[in-house]
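User: I'm new to structure prediction. If I give you an amino acid sequence, what do you actually give back? Let's try with this one:
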Amino acid sequence: MRKRDMNGLQAFAYNVIGGKHIKAGKPCQDAARAESRDGISVIAVADGHGASEHYLSDVGASLAVDIAMVYIRQFAKQIGKEELTQENFRRLKKAILARWREEVMKDFRKRRENLNVRDGDDPIRAYGTTLIAAAVTKEFWLALQIGDGNCIEWYDGLQFSESMPRDPYCTGESTSSLCQKDALERFRFCFGFRIPTMLLLHTDGIDDSMMDDAQRCGCYLSFAAGFREGIENGLSSLRENLGRIAVLWKKDDVSAAGVIQRETIVSCAETLYPIYIKQKKEREYQRLMQKISETEAICHAMEKDIDSFRSRREYDRNEKLLREKEALLVSYRIELEEDRKSLERYKNTETLC
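Assistant: Good question. You get back a string of structure tokens that encode the predicted 3D arrangement of the chain. For your 353 residues, that looks like this:
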């Protein structure tokens, strides 16, 4: 989904079903929306919870983004930048939450006859979901969030900012949710007066597929650097990256929505690209160094094992096992030699000097 506006902003939104949901025959539990018109770009993503008690979370996520899109646009249209106050944000959060609960109950009443619901069950929990929504105007940008996922601002260079306050309740597999009784108090918000080159919202499918913050930053760099060949190529590259994350890594649903400045993003990406390539090569260099060290340790351990095997003359009784051990050692030595050659090539690469 791609939407342009006359003020030079372009909004986009993509959601990709995760490989584990495809295998299990489950629907995509993420939702993403984007819209640019009348000088305001609005985006939203939501991640429905996967636990069995949240069996309508895909519906909850879809309702959440649709409602947030309407209310955050209205909010951005009606206020000035001097009115971005905590009290006004509280009114916005309260309005979104109340409308979401209202629509959830409408949907539940339609489905009730076909659901196995016990007396005393809270129907709203079945629709549990996170939500991140944002609006960008000529004068300011703003965002609000409940639950996990990220709101990322990229201006230029290697710096990716995260103005959104952290949620202390988001730890491990736990997250804040629209379905909780104290959801209103769990919302966070942020805003700014410098318009990012790209404002990016994404669900936790990206975070959960990264080993650490350095790898996550590398993922953001690849998103941004993809725009060096133009906006359409950049958006296609971003969507392809999301597809790889959803299928090849943790296999969770992945959603992202963003707003880009059409006039500046290509030039910023062109400046970023050589830096991105250098960092990518440096990461690969470090990966090879670690792999070589680990393979050397394996070879050393296997050599000792084979020597011990021979010293006990066990090979007289099991010559086949000895041959298997020796063949495996040879394969590791070949792999080690290939990695050493690759490492030598990286040492001679100009970008690592």
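You can read the tokens as a compact description of the fold. Here is one thing that stands out. The helical segments are 19-24, 57-78, 86-111, 183-186, 213-225, 231-248, 265-311, 319-347.
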